[in-house]
Every structure is written in structure tokens, then in C-alpha cells.
Design a protein that fits this description.
Radius of gyration: 32 Å
Largest sheet: 6 strands, antiparallel
Structural class: alpha+beta
Number of helices: 29
Shape: globular
Distance between the termini: 61 Å
Number of strands: 50
Length: about 1350
């Protein structure tokens, strides 16, 4: 043991030495003053709406965030507050800070102001002298303020002008129409400003267009060259070696900057006395600003080290002399990939562009010149490769770039040989005769290719197109994942923990790719770091979406600088697999009359921006980057020269597609085309009721409530949901439903008309003379001739039947210091649904004491059914597309659904609610994205209906396992009533394969089910009296596949493909032991970290004792049993047995749950993060379909849902709290969302304390975002032991009974044991049963 410890210390010694060296170097780092950290900032508005003045806060922050924090306005996401606070988008906001400049900062030759995340149209002034302007929220800005900084007190002012007003002004000034998507309730002209398009509103989110500062603001003093960044690229060779190249981006010495700065202050005084000692240009030339770049690489385990170095000479350079080729050679002067776009209109590294002369001579401080690029390379002969998590491990090397400065060249020494990189010490260091600066990155070595090869003609398809799939390190990858959108309406509210949780949630659902949608924001580093560590690939889009875009020189300049910066920033992340130029911009050619009428014009605009500028900006950083100019697209006719295949972007033969068809049957496999790659598809649902209640009031919990229509930003959304429900779940006559909906809509519209005039008056636009915008130096924004969004607001408040919409409005005056009142309630059109209620009334809203009203119960049931329908639709599509992998014509190799997450609590396509809890979709995804999948398909061969059972394997190993097909009667109460239809213990599927594993006629299946059911006394309805075939309305099929062995696959050249379960050279066939437990237990154990002692993995799946902890974790995560249900008739026609579900709640770690928790929490900690706060045990007296559980008081997620709950097989689930957003509400001292263990839990075995519809107090807006509703007091049997978590349980029979009680009257009645529920609910006492009639 001692010898082993000494060996480890010997390997780690270089690392320890360099950590000490880095600590010493950081003491001599460049002088930096982080202004954003000072809690002395002040906020003032410029339009006079309430004359808001706040002070005493730090950055980053958005203006509305601060207003909420100070109690001036309510929670922006609460009820109608989006409309109430729309005025803030049309106001101008000034962030200011008075600060003292330290002596050591003033002593430097140059002082630079660095601003990240100016959102968006900003004017910066220092001591009343103009510094510069910005019109791009997607990139940083830097100015030399040496001549403007004073000794003692300084005043920095950053004024943010109205983004919507600026965008409208740019649109009006452009020479021809450039159309963009106008979403319901959104603000116009987002395509004319470099800001997140979704900030202007989308069909799944609100329109705040927030102003704020989303990143650091700091002063940096330096007298030497400085590292500004590093770009990383890698080249993989056929022999397995990898060349790693780093482009060091080195800012030139500031010799010529100080004199310029001292002359650029518009009459301001000369620079501080401390700057007079800075060496002159001649002195610097004589000294020779020379230094050394040192590149060091350390293996993931610290045992191997590589390094290289290069001497560099840095000469003063100004922006005008920085011209170089787009892909200049190493050592060339200029920013990375300098192109003419960078220098247009005088724009340097921080030019503004966006239309108009943003930088006039003498009007501001000079910009920091672009850096010079110097390249260094390291060759690795036998690297450890980074893999997506379902193909292998994610080893991350540590890479450090160090710049050693030595004016005299004597006495300087490189870091210790073999030393490992240390933590990043900033962008530079100065002082004395030598100093050191360092940048550190964690990198993975991998090669990503997009394979597009022509497919041979077949009998079925004369022109099948070409492939579209990713290869990682030479191995094919079936991409499984989703599209991710911004995590919050206010970027400063997003925490690193939230981003990591989203990535963890994606991996927990077996996703291996996330697409960063082009209508949002580039994510913070924490997101990409998490993807690197989790083994998720990222499809990164540039931030352009769903519109035509300008191509004037200033806009192109901004686009170049933005994308160049982001490409450099993200270049070190192995997760970045592909860059996309935009989202749906080519598809949008057919959306607008202008582009449809003149496609040549807009095609020229498209090619200039997304081929000549964005593509070149990406490839200038790394020529090997995979790039597509838009999604969806038909790909290319030629790569060199670059020639697009223009045409119908929905053609499934080429490229990727986006598929949306709301009128088609979402649960039919035939609906989904045989595409090569599906980068978007979806069907929407309503947010989980537990999440929705946190931002609404009880009167909103009805389909006919104004809030329902207000939150629905997708036109006709409720009608589309209802139409699908009528197909599959609801038996009411469509004609009767339509008549009822029309009557309800007429009543709602009458109510809305009475309030419309007042609303339009209250949300009038700003007067033209008060239009927001920069001073005369920039293009003057103007107010639109009619209220922005007024027409859409009218559509919201008085839409025709079936046209649900939400509106937008202009600013409204706000009394200073008073909370904002809610927007007046309005009546949108009711849903065209047999479940739609009439207009809300006091009588309808208030049920018996302590009970939810009938309308609220039906609303909750409609929400649940919308989510179930969404999950089943996605499951149908994904199963079909994954089976298509083996179709020689289709060869589908990727599905990324829309969308992973939500930005607010409203209807959307999301699988994760805005509070971090999971909708049913995400639980479905954990099943249909399982790497080893069983799926069923009913087909017709002309003679009858056939049941096909398919096995799909996305793993790099062959899998053999137990395949079973069972028929289960809906009225089954005993396990012996389950009829085995098929069993095969050695059903195999090759690596990366798909095959038909079994098929049988439906007639035979039903005959077997009927005969067996009759022999065991299946009860009425399960078969004929004489043992005849079962009725399809009485049974369903459960398909199940459980892996038992794996077989290592061989590559085409004889090399072994990656194996996440065995070491290289291990046995080609390794036995797995199948443990006990139901499907939920297997999912709970799916991601165990394994045993610390290197012993066998714990149940349910066990590897041999030689398996490492990581291999054990991979096996538990990737080799779960897969289960699918096949219904033989529409569920609305099935004879479902009424079911009552009971719930037992226990604290995490209680004696009653210890055995299961040890296995389940180990699995879920890795998959879901954190520790479980409590568990629930579910029991049912009958077959309960798609059982869903929600926690009412705490945002978080259970490790299972949409369960098949059988009477003889209870299931236990764990609850994991969600990560918190950055606080944006008033300090209330209450528990915050996502806090773990906010109070003692109930005793083991006791049930939740309230009904499924817990009522929040009215007007809880500000408190709602802060966290959770107050825990109700326990009583009765609670014994004063504390508070129980409030649990809501939903299942299919219960939802159908609520929505159409006449169809299933027996399911609406309760067992006798539930007769005490009214009194218990009124007292909020924990009970032992939650019954369908009270949920």
C-alpha cells in the first residue's frame, strides 16, 4: 500500500509543483477591477414611467429582475404580468456605478473596459465622456479608456435603449422588406437586432424583450501583451494519432494605445499621473516586447504530460493594420480568421454595426485592437478518445496555454517539465522583469464527421437520396435527443446548477445530443462543460431563426464578430459536433409573400450571410468543423465549390427535416415520413398542474378561464389538442362538442368585448416623441404608427371560435414604488373540446369546503391527458424512426424532438417544466430513447393484422436477452391472469442493429389470450364463454426485453469498436445477471456508480466482479429492460376497469425504504443529481394505466412516471428537488424552489396532506417565483411530527372519468373507504388513499 501511494505521489508531483507556480503567478496577474461585483450599482429609467431609481445591487441583472427584487413590480411570470410589465421593454434604462480607481490600475500603460452581455442597444460613458456603443448581446465589447479614467472617484454609465424600438427603427430604415415570423403575442422586427429572438416572444414563451447586463463588467490594466483567448482544433490520423493545435490569441502591447486614448476624450483631461511613467513606443521597441508561449497537456489521470513552446515577438498594432487572410497562417497579425467583415465601418474587435455610423471619429474611446494569432501543436501517438456516453468514456485532458513575459530575455524560465496546467489565472499578468499569464481548458479528443453518401436505387425507391448521420471516432451514432431553448426569460437568472441539471436530465433520458436552437442564446460555459463531462454531443446553431435577415455591411460585420467570438470560445469543447448557420431560415422562404414572390433576392441575402460570413467565421477557427448553413435543408450538391441543393426542405430523401403535422393522427406510425435525420418534430401539451399553479390563481384553473387562452401562444393550440383527444380518448360526439364549444366561445367573446377597449387604452404605445433609442449618432428609433402588438392583443381578447391566442401591448405608466396591478381579466375563446367548461363563475370556481371544484378537477385531468397524448405521440414517432434505421431506403439515423425545456409555465412542446419538474414526455423519453429498445407495430398484409416486435440496439456491442410478449386484461387483479404469448430467452440484436424479432397474427394473439384467460377465470369481458378469442377492447399487450449477455463487436478493419462495459482485450462475451424488481426499479438503478470496492454491481443488472465502477455504472444505465405497451383498439373504445390508487409517503432513508433506496438513489444520484428528499409507494386495486405523480409544493422530479401500475406489483419512486434559479424576487425568508428538505416529512407510510388540487392564496405572484406554497398544517393522525409533501396522482381512468363521467360512471364513484374524504380534505389531514373522484 505504501509503495502504491508513493507511486501516485511521484506521478502527481509535477502537478503539485505547477499548482504552486500558478499560485505565485496569479499574484503578478494583470491588474483587474471587477466592477460587476460591486454592490453599489444604480438603475434609473429614462422614459419617465414612474421615475424608477434603484441602487445597491451587483451585476449581472436585468432591469425587470431588479424591479421585482425591490418589490416595485410583481413576479413577471405571474398571471397577466407580462402585459402589465410590457412598458419596461419600451423604456430606456441606465446602469451606473461610482467607483474608486486603485493606484495599481492607474499605473499601467493602458486600461481597458471589458463588457460582456450588454443586452442590447447600449451607450457607455465614463466620467461623462462617451466610450462606445453596442448593438449586439451575443458578444463582448472592449474599449481602451486609459485617457478617460481619473484618480479617485469615477462614474461609469451604461444606458440600454429600448430593443423593440431600435429594431423597428432599423426595419423602417432598411431599403426593402425583410420579413420575420410574428408569433402570437410577440413583438416585431427581432431580425433587425442582435438579441435573442425569443426575447420578442415565441409560440411557447412570453415577450419581455428585457434590457440588462448579462455578464461581467471589468477594468483591466496592462503594460504588456496579454492573452485574449485560445482556439483549439485537432486532426486525427489513420494510425490513431492526434495532432492538437492551439491558436494563442495575443493582444499587442499597449504602446500606441495610451496616446490615442489621451486624445480621444472629447476634451476630457489627460490621463492620470500614473500613466506618465509608461514606456514610449521607442523604448518598447528597444526593449523588444518578446515572450514565450508554453503549451502544456496533461492526461486525464495525470500520469502523462506533453508540452511545447514558441518564442514570440509582439509589436504594437492598431485596428486598421490588422488585415489578414480569412484563414491566415500561424503568427499572422489580426484576430482569428480576420476577414474584411471585421473592419467594415471602422468596426474592430468590438465594433457595433447594426445599421448607422455607430463609431464616429473622435466620438468615443478607441477599441482594443484585435489580437495576433500564434499557433502551437502537440502530437499524441496513443490518445484516450472521448466518446458520447452510450459509446464509451469521456476522458478529459487538461490543457494550459501560458504566456511568459520577459523584456530582457534573461532569467526567464519555463514552467517545470511535465507540469500539469493549473487553474486559469486570468487573461494576463504584469509587473517586474517577467510575469506569466495562463488560460486553462479541459478538452476531449474525438473526431466527428457528418456522413452524406448517395444511396443506391432500390425497387421501392428509384431515387432514395443520400445518408445523413454522424460518425464519432469512425463509429456510427444514432442521435437521440432534443432541442434546448433559453432556461429563463432573464439570462442573469440562469444558474450553472440549472444548466447542469438540464444536461443531467437529458442524459437521464438516454439522450446523446442536444441542439442549441438558433432563436435563443449561446449558452454559458457551464452548459458546454456539463455536456463534455456527461458525453452529450451539441448541435450548435448561430443565433438566427425563422426569418429573412439584412445583409448591409454593418450587420454582416456584427455577424462575423459574433460568430468568430463564439466559435473560438466553444472550440475546446469535445461536445460541439456541428455548427448550424440558422434555424429554418431557408424553410421560411415559403412563409412570407415577399420571399415567395422574389426568392432570388432573399436567396442572395441568405448566401451572403450564412455562407460567406457565418460559415467562413466558423471555419476560420477550425476548418475541420462540420457546418450546415441551415436546418432543415437538403444538403449540398457540392462541397468544393460550395453549392446548395435548393428545394423543398421537407424532402425526406436529403438532409434533415423538421416535421409538424397537427391535423394528422399523431399516434399512427404512418404519419411520420422516412426521413434520414429528424432535427425537430413535436406535438404540444399543457404544463404540469403543480408548476402552473405556482404562477396562477384558482380562478385560472379552467379551460374557459382567460389565463388558459392567454398562455397559449400557438394559434389553434387547444383546438389541435382537443381534436387528437377526440381521436383517441374521448367518446363525445364531435358535432355535439363543436356546438357546445361555439356557445361557450360566444359567451366568452361577449365578455371579452366589454373589456377590450379598456385593455387597449391601458396598454397604449409610447408617444412618438418619447420613442426609445440612442442619441443622434445612431439611427433614431421611431414609434410604429399603431400600438405594437395592439392588433394581436385584440386577437387574444376577442378571437373567433377555435382561435386561441395571446397578445402583446405597449408600455403603461407605473406609479413609482407601488406594486404593479394585474392586467384586467379577459375572456379568450374556450377550447373546442367536449371537456371544455363554460365561463368561470364564483359558484363554479368554489367547490365544497377544502375541495377543488369540478372545473378545476377537469382542468387538471385535461392537463394530464394532454401530456399523456404528447408522450404517446412522441413514442410512436421515435419508435418508427428508430425502426427505420434498418430500412435501406430510409436509414433514419437521428431524432431530436422539440423541445427539451420551458422558459415559462405555459403550453409548449417541452418535456421539462420551467421549474425543473418533468412532464410526462420526459419520462416517456427515458423509455423510447433507451439504447436497447423493444417496440411493437400492427401491420396489415392483406389477409389480416400482424403484430411485429422489433429490437433496436444503438450500442457498440451485441446484446442477447429475454424477450417476452404478454397479454394483460384491463380488469386483471391477479398475476396469473397475465397471458404469456411469446417467450424467447436468447433473443439477440447485433451492435448498431435493428431487426424484426417476432411476429404473429393478431387473430392468434387474441385467441391465445382468450383461451388462457378463460382457463384462469379472467372475469367477464376478457374472453367468450367458450374460451374464444379475447376482445381487443378487453386486453392490451406488454412487450419486454431484458439484456442478459453482451458481445463485443469487431470493426470493419478488424479493430475492436468501443465497449463501455469491458476493458480493451476483455472477454468478447460477458454474462450479466438479471436481478429482481419491476420496470421502475430497473430505471431507478439505471445509472449506478457501481461498487467502490470493485465488486459486482448490485441488482438488477450485475457485471462480473472484474468490472470497474464506471463500467458497472454504464451497464446499469444502458442495459435496462425495455418495455412497450401495444393497445389493440383506441383507448376511448377500450373497456378500462376503474382503478383506485393509494400513495404512501416516506422520508428518504427511512427504515421502510432503506433497502430499495440504496440501489435506487445510487442510480438516480448520477442520473438526476443530488439526493432524494422523499419517496412514494404506489398501490392500485386494478390495472392503472400511465400513473403520474407530482409534488405540489416543491419543484423537482420523480425518477419514474407514466407507469403501468399492476395490483400485484406496487412501485416506489424517489423525488429529487430541482436546481434553483438565481433569485429575482423579494427576500421573503420562505423556502425557495428546489431547496432540499425544507421541513420534516411525514412518518413512513403516511399519505400526502392535501388533495391533488392544492389551492394557493390569491395574488401570490411575487412569492410564487421565490419558491413554494406554504406547507399546510398536519393534524389528526399526524401527531405533530411535521409536514407531509403534498402529492398529486393522475392516471388514465381517473382523467377520463373527470372529462366524460357519462362514459364511465363506475370510475367516477369511489370505494367505501373514500367516503371520509370531504372532511379529511377540509382539515388537510394525511390520509391513506387518494381516490379518482377527488383528484
Amino acid at each position: 500500500m505504501a509503495t502504491a501511494m508513493l507511486a501516485v505521489l511521484a506521478r502527481r508531483l509535477p502537478l503539485l509543483l505547477l499548482l504552486a507556480a500558478a499560485a505565485s503567478a496569479s499574484a503578478s496577474a494583470l491588474v483587474s477591477l471587477p466592477l460587476h461585483e460591486q454592490a453599489a450599482w444604480r438603475l434609473d429609467n429614462g422614459r419617465g414611467f414612474g421615475n424608477v431609481s434603484l441602487e445597491g445591487f451587483s451585476l449581472p441583472a436585468a432591469a425587470l429582475q431588479l424591479l421585482h427584487r425591490e418589490g416595485i413590480v410583481g413576479d413577471p411570470l405571474y398571471r397577466f404580468n407580462e402585459l402589465e410589465q410590457r412598458w419596461a421593454a419600451w423604456d430606456n434604462w441606465t446602469f451606473s456605478l461610482a467607483f474608486q480607481a486603485p493606484t495599481e490600475l492607474l499605473a499601467e500603460a493602458a486600461v481597458e473596459l471589458l463588457c460582456e452581455g450588454l443586452d442590447t442597444v447600449a451607450e457607455v460613458a465614463l466620467n461623462s465622456a462617451p466610450v462606445g456603443r453596442s448593438v449586439n448581446a451575443h458578444r463582448p465589447h472592449a474599449w481602451d479608456v486609459t485617457g478617460l479614467l481619473a484618480e479617485g472617484r469615477n462614474l461609469l454609465e451604461i444606458t440600454l435603449f429600448s430593443a423593440p424600438a431600435y429594431a423597428l427603427a432599423q426595419q423602417a430604415a432598411y431599403p426593402y422588406s425583410v420579413p420575420a415570423t410574428q408569433q402570437v403575442g410577440s413583438l416585431p422586427a427581432y431580425n433587425f437586432i442582435r438579441k435573442a429572438a425569443s426575447d420578442f416572444g415565441w409560440d411557447w414563451g412570453p415577450a419581455f424583450a428585457p434590457a440588462g447586463i448579462n455578464g461581467p463588467v471589468e477594468l483591466r490594466g496592462r503594460s504588456t501583451p496579454a492573452l485574449a483567448g485560445m482556439a483549439v482544433r485537432q486532426q486525427h490520423f489513420a494510425n490513431g494519432s492526434v495532432e492538437l493545435t492551439v491558436d494563442a490569441l495575443l493582444l499587442p502591447p499597449p504602446a500606441q494605445q495610451a496616446p490615442q486614448a489621451q486624445q480621444a476624450g472629447n476634451g476630457s483631461s489627460a490621463g492620470p499621473a500614473g500613466n506618465s511613467s509608461a514606456p514610449s513606443s521607442a523604448q518598447q521597441a528597444e526593449q523588444g516586447e518578446r515572450g514565450m508561449l508554453l503549451l502544456q497537456l496533461v492526461s486525464p489521470d495525470g500520469s502523462q504530460h506533453w508540452q511545447t513552446q514558441a518564442d514570440v515577438a509582439s509589436l504594437p498594432v492598431d485596428a486598421c493594420s490588422a488585415t489578414a487572410a480569412c484563414r491566415g497562417d500561424a503568427g499572422s497579425t489580426g484576430s482569428p480568421g480576420t476577414c474584411p467583415w471585421l473592419l467594415l465601418d471602422g468596426a474592430g474587435s468590438s465594433g457595433s454595426g447594426g445599421g448607422g455610423p455607430e463609431e464616429e471619429a473622435g466620438a468615443g474611446a478607441p477599441q482594443v485592437p484585435p489580437p495576433a494569432k500564434h499557433s502551437l501543436s502537440i502530437m499524441l501517438d496513443s490518445p484516450q478518445l472521448w466518446w458520447p456516453h452510450d459509446l464509451g468514456a469521456q476522458p478529459l485532458y487538461t490543457l494550459q496555454l501560458r504566456y511568459q513575459i520577459n523584456s530582457t530575455r534573461q532569467g526567464s524560465a519555463p514552467a517545470p517539465e511535465g507540469a500539469a496546467p493549473a487553474a486559469e489565472s486570468g487573461t494576463g499578468g504584469s509587473g517586474g522583469g517577467s510575469s506569466s499569464q495562463a488560460l486553462t481548458r479541459r478538452i476531449g479528443l474525438r473526431q466527428v464527421e457528418l456522413v452524406t453518401q448517395p444511396l443506391p436505387a432500390t425497387a421501392a425507391a428509384a431515387s432514395p437520396g443520400e445518408t445523413f448521420f454522424f460518425q464519432v471516432n469512425g463509429q456510427p451514432l444514432y442521435a437521440r435527443g432534443a432541442n434546448i431553448v433559453p432556461a429563463h426569460v432573464f439570462e442573469p437568472a440562469v444558474t450553472a446548477a440549472q444548466l447542469r441539471q438540464l444536461v443531467g436530465d437529458a442524459r437521464a433520458a438516454h439522450m446523446n445530443m442536444l441542439r442549441v436552437w438558433g432563436g435563443g442564446r449561446y449558452f454559458a460555459d457551464a452548459f458546454y462543460d456539463a455536456c463534455d463531462e456527461a458525453g452529450l454531443l451539441v448541435w450548435q446553431e448561430a443565433m438566427f431563426a425563422c426569418a429573412m435577415y439584412p445583409r448591409d455591411r454593418a450587420f454582416l460585420s456584427e455577424a462575423w464578430q459574433e460568430v468568430s467570438h463564439q466559435a473560438v470560445r466553444l472550440s475546446s469543447h469535445p461536445s460541439i459536433s456541428i455548427w448550424g448557420g440558422n434555424n429554418e431560415n431557408e424553410a421560411a422562404f415559403g412563409w412570407f409573400a415577399q420571399s415567395a414572390g422574389n426568392p432570388q433576392l432573399y436567396a442572395a441575402d441568405f448566401a451572403k450571410l450564412f455562407v460567406d460570413v457565418v460559415r467562413e467565421a466558423v471555419l476560420s477557427v477550425d476548418p475541420g468543423t462540420v457546418y450546415v448553413d441551415t436546418s432543415p435543408s437538403n444538403g449540398l450538391l457540392s462541397h468544393d465549390p460550395y453549392v446548395k441543393r435548393w428545394g423543398d426542405v421537407g424532402d425526406p430523401r436529403f438532409g434533415d427535416i423538421h416535421f409538424y403535422s397537427y391535423a394528422a393522427d399523431a399516434l399512427s406510425p404512418a404519419t411520420y415520413p422516412p426521413a434520414k435525420f429528424v432535427s425537430e418534430f413535436g406535438f404540444m401539451s399543457l404544463p404540469s398542474f403543480s408548476a402552473y399553479k405556482r404562477v396562477t390563481a384558482p380562478e385560472d384553473w379552467s379551460l374557459a378561464a382567460p389565463m388558459t387562452g392567454f398562455r397559449m401562444r400557438h394559434a389553434n393550440g387547444l383546438s389541435e389538442l382537443s381534436a387528437q383527444m377526440e381521436l383517441h380518448f374521448l367518446t363525445a360526439s364531435p358535432q355535439q362538442a363543436q356546438q357546445a364549444a361555439q356557445q361557450e366561445a360566444q359567451q366568452a367573446q361577449q365578455n371579452a368585448t366589454q373589456q377590450l377597449a379598456a385593455l387597449l387604452h391601458a396598454y397604449a404605445p409610447p408617444p412618438a416623441e418619447q420613442a426609445a433609442g440612442p442619441p443622434a449618432a445612431a439611427a433614431e428609433p421611431v414609434s410604429p404608427p399603431s400600438p405594437p402588438g395592439a392588433v394581436l392583443l385584440e386577437e387574444l381578447m376577442a378571437a373567433p371560435p377555435g382561435q386561441e391566442a395571446a397578445g402583446s401591448a405597449g408600455p403603461v405608466p407605473l406609479a413609482a414604488g407601488t406594486p404593479a396591478a394585474e392586467a384586467p381579466a379577459a375572456e379568450p375563446t374556450a377550447a373546442r373540446s367536449p371537456a371544455a367548461e363554460g365561463p368561470t363563475s364564483e359558484a363554479a370556481a368554489a367547490g365544497p369546503a377544502g375541495q377543488p371544484s369540478q372545473q378545476q378537477r377537469r382542468f387538471a385531468a385535461f392537463i394530464y391527458l394532454s401530456q399523456l397524448q404528447q408522450g404517446l405521440a412522441y413514442q410512436t414517432a421515435v419508435h418508427q424512426w428508430r425502426r427505420n434505421k434498418a430500412d435501406p431506403t430510409a436509414q433514419t439515423m437521428g431524432v431530436l424532438y422539440w423541445q427539451l425545456n420551458d422558459i415559462w409555465q405555459g403550453p409548449s412542446w417541452s418535456g421539462i417544466n420551467a421549474d425543473g419538474s418533468w412532464r410526462l414526455l420526459h419520462h416517456f423519453a427515458a423509455s423510447f430513447f433507451s439504447p436497447v429498445l423493444v417496440s411493437g407495430l400492427l401491420t396489415s398484409d392483406g389477409t389480416g393484422i400482424q403484430l411485429e416486435v422489433h429490437l433496436t440496439n444503438d450500442l457498440p456491442v451485441g446484446v442477447t436477452g429475454l424477450l417476452s410478449v404478454d397479454a394483460i386484461p384491463f380488469n386483471a387483479t391477479r398475476p396469473e391472469q397475465v397471458v404469456p404469448i411469446y417467450r424467447f430467452a436468447s433473443a439477440g440484436i447485433p451492435a448498431f442493429g435493428d431487426r424484426l424479432a417476432w411476429s404473429g397474427s393478431l387473430e392468434d394473439v387474441l385467441a391465445a389470450a382468450g383461451n388462457a384467460s378463460s382457463s384462469v377465470g379472467g372475469g367477464s369481458g376478457s374472453g367468450t364463454a367458450g374460451g374464444g378469442p379475447a376482445d381487443p377492447a378487453d386486453v392490451f399487450l406488454r412487450l419486454r426485453y431484458c439484456p442478459t449477455t453482451i458481445q463485443a463487436a469487431q470493426g470493419g478493419n478488424g479493430t475492436t469498436v468501443p465497449n463501455p462495459f469491458l476493458d480493451a482485450g476483455g472477454s468478447s462475451s460477458s454474462a450479466l445477471q438479471q436481478g429482481s424488481g419491476g420496470h421502475a426499479a430497473e430505471r431507478q438503478a439505471a445509472a449506478s456508480d457501481g461498487s467502490e470496492g470493485g465488486g459486482p454491481c448490485s441488482a438488477p443488472v450485475v457485471l462480473p466482479g472484474s468490472a470497474s465502477a464506471a463500467q458497472c455504472a454504464a451497464a446499469r444505465r444502458l442495459l435496462q429492460c425495455s418495455e412497450s405497451l401495444v393497445f389493440l383498439t383506441e383507448l376511448k373504445d377500450a373497456r378500462l376497469a376503474p382503478a383506485n390508487v393509494s400513495v404512501e409517503v416516506a422520508p428518504a432513508g427511512s427504515a421502510a425504504q432503506q433497502a430499495q433506496q440504496q440501489a435506487a438513489e445510487a442510480a438516480s444520484n448520477e442520473a438526476l443529481g443530488g439526493s432524494a428528499s422523499f419517496s412514494v409507494r404506489l398501490n392500485s386495486d386494478a390495472v392503472a394505466l400511465f400513473v403520474s405523480v407530482e409534488a405540489e409544493q416543491q419543484a423537482g422530479r420523480f425518477n419514474g412516471s407514466a407507469l403501468l401500475l399492476l395490483p400485484w406489483q406496487p412501485q416506489t419512486l424517489l423525488f429529487f428537488p430541482a436546481a434553483e434559479a438565481a433569485s429575482a424576487g423579494p427576500d421573503s425568508g420562505g423556502a425557495s424552489a428546489g431547496s432540499s428538505g425544507s421541513g420534516p416529512l411525514a412518518e413512513p407510510g403516511r399519505v400526502a396532506g392535501t388533495a391533488a388540487l392544492a389551492m394557493p392564496a390569491a395574488e401570490q405572484g411575487p412569492a410564487a417565483e421565490e419558491g413554494v406554497l406554504a406547507d399546510p398544517p398536519t393534524g389528526g393522525g399526524g401527531g405533530g411530527r411535521g409536514h407531509a409533501p403534498n402529492i398529486s396522482v393522475y392516471w388514465l381512468q381517473q382523467a377520463l372519468a373527470e372529462l366524460q363521467p357519462e362514459a364511465q360512471p363506475e370510475a367516477a364513484s369511489s370505494a367505501g373507504s373514500c367516503s371520509v374524504m370531504p372532511a379529511i380534505l377540509a382539515l388537510l389531514v394525511p390520509v391513506a388513499l387518494l381516490c379518482a373522484s377527488w383528484l
